[in-house]
Design brief:
Layout: H1 6-19, H2 55-58, H3 62-74, H4 76-96, E1 102-114, E2 127-142, H5 147-213, H6 219-253, H7 284-287, H8 289-310, E3 315-326, E4 338-347, H9 355-421, H10 427-461, H11 470-481
Antiparallel strand pairs: 1-2, 2-3, 3-4
Helix pairs in contact: 3-5, 3-11, 4-5, 5-6, 5-8, 5-10, 8-9, 9-10
């Protein structure tokens, strides 16, 4: 380096620091969202929300709670999500390292042999020389335009988005286990209905068989009774197969091999809250993990636009070297063998065939994609809440009507049986009443199941458990893993 060069390096670095005060590219601003005053199906705005409750206060069934804890501890999707968080945290550390100077070292030894005649020197003796050296090097890119800061913003947004994705996996797992569990309880009810109907139709068929022997009943009556019995019998193995499939599904959610699943409170004894607070629609943007993740994707894309814009401008690098070099290994430590170098370099693009421009355009297009995806996620969230809320309301009315239907048909079976016993009616009336009762009972079970499922879906749609810290989720997982 020529003498006096350090006179312009220090002022240059100072100017670079001043330029580095602001990052190039747009600062992130959340795009405006037109939020409804209330959710569709909601009567009035409410300050409290079902989502404020932790899931273990939402579900009262101790067996279900245990299954959810086991799933949180062992589910493989949760493990994958946790590993992705660790990966994103490490990548954020990699991006952050660009703020700091880089130091390195090097040691070497060499030998050279030169024939003077090759250099045009009149000498008959070739020369052989040794070289020993050791150096420390340093380099530092000064973030003049904020390119590195934008890359760090992108890495941090990716980390936060990954953490939100993990919270989404937790919430989805809770709802999936609860839904599958309630579906399993409903299948238990269907199986009992099938067995009850088979037993009733078996009695009818046996009665007609006996009466047919004595010529009291007709072949038509017996055949109809046989048909009803066969249909009821066929339902039992079908439902049993569905039960095994549902148990296997829950086992996979629990992260274990397929097997039987324990039951707790029967379906009809599961509580359903008559009125459910929803909270304000505006809070949904802060609570649902998928919305939060979609916003972090926007933050990341916005930061990468700034980083791509910074590629149009020159980069300032500072480099330094300090070491010793000598032809004699003993001379490496002497003061006369000291070597050093300090340099500053400014380099920028002139022509790259449009690569930088097209990369910048690609980043802008990516930003537009994340923006559209965010808006789509928001309106889908409002839809999810409205769907679940409406289902809860309408299914409650449907269950009231279906309960009335089942009670009426149970009474019809009882009256038809009494009329038959006293010879006031044929057994057709009994058979017809039974054929109407058992499907009505199955429909009632389905409505009750759907009400329970809608309750779970509403909790998920509202971003249930949003106030829980990651440590609280992990504590519940430890409870299930212990």
């Amino acid at each position: 380096m020529r003498p006096g060069a350090s006179r312009w390096i220090a002022p240059g670095v100072g100017a670079a620091m001043l330029f580095a005060g602001c990052a190039i590219g747009p600062d992130y601003k959340r795009p405006p969202v037109i939020e409804p005053q209330v959710f569709r199906g909601q009567d009035a705005a409410e300050s409290t929300s079902l989502a404020d409750l932790p899931w273990w206060e939402l579900f009262k069934d101790a067996t279900l709670k245990g299954l959810i804890q086991e799933a949180l501890a062992n589910n493989y999707d949760v493990r994958i999500a946790s590993a992705r968080v660790q990966e994103a945290r490490a990548r954020a550390g990699v991006a952050r390292s660009q703020f700091f100077p880089k130091f390195g070292y090097g040691f070497g030894v060499g030998e050279s042999h030169i024939n003077p005649a090759q250099l045009g020197i009149q000498s008959s003796q070739p020369t052989t020389s040794d070289l020993f050296f050791g150096v420390l090097s340093a380099s530092w890119e000064i973030d003049i335009w904020g390119r590195i800061r934008r890359l760090n913003e992108a890495a941090k947004a990716n980390l936060l988005g990954t953490e939100d994705a993990r919270r989404g996996v937790w919430l989805t797992l809770v709802s999936d286990v609860a839904q599958a569990y309630f579906e399993l309880l409903a299948l238990d009810v269907r199986l009992q209905i099938a067995r009850d109907s088979t037993q009733a139709f078996q009695g009818t068929y046996d009665l007609f068989q006996d009466r047919l022997k004595f010529g009291v009943a007709s072949e038509l009556q017996t055949s109809r009774a046989q048909g009803a019995l066969g249909a009821a019998e066929a339902t039992i193995p079908e439902v049993q197969s569905e039960i095994v499939a549902k148990e296997n599904q829950i086992s996979i959610l629990l992260g274990k091999d397929p097997g039987p699943i324990r039951r707790g409170t029967p379906m009809y004894e599961q509580p359903i809250v008559p009125t459910v607070p929803l909270g304000l629609p505006s809070t949904l943007l802060e609570r649902r993990p998928d919305i939060r993740q979609a916003e972090q994707e926007m933050v990341r894309a916005n930061a990468l636009v700034g980083a791509a814009k910074g590629d149009f401008f020159p980069k300032l690098d500072l480099k330094g070297l300090l070491g010793t070099a000598s032809s004699d290994i003993s001379g490496v430590t002497s003061a006369s063998s000291l070597i050093w170098q300090v340099a500053a370099g400014l380099a920028g693009p002139i022509f790259e065939g449009g690569r930088i421009l097209e990369s910048y355009r690609a980043r802008i297009a990516e930003w537009e994609q994340t923006k559209a995806s965010y808006m789509q996620t928001v309106i889908s969230a409002f839809k999810d809440v409205s769907d679940a809320l409406t289902a809860l309301s309408k299914l409650a009315d449907a269950e009231t009507g279906q309960v009335r239907s089942v009670k009426g048909l149970e009474s019809a079976v009882s009256h038809a049986t009494d009329r038959y016993r006293y010879g006031l009616a044929s057994y057709y009336e009994v058979l017809e009443a039974q054929q109407q009762l058992f499907p009505a009972q199955a429909t009632l079970a389905q409505i009750r199941r759907d009400r329970l499922l809608s309750y779970v879906k509403l909790y998920k749609a509202l971003g249930g458990g949003w106030s829980l810290a990651d440590a609280q989720w992990e504590d519940q997982a430890k409870s299930g893993g212990g």
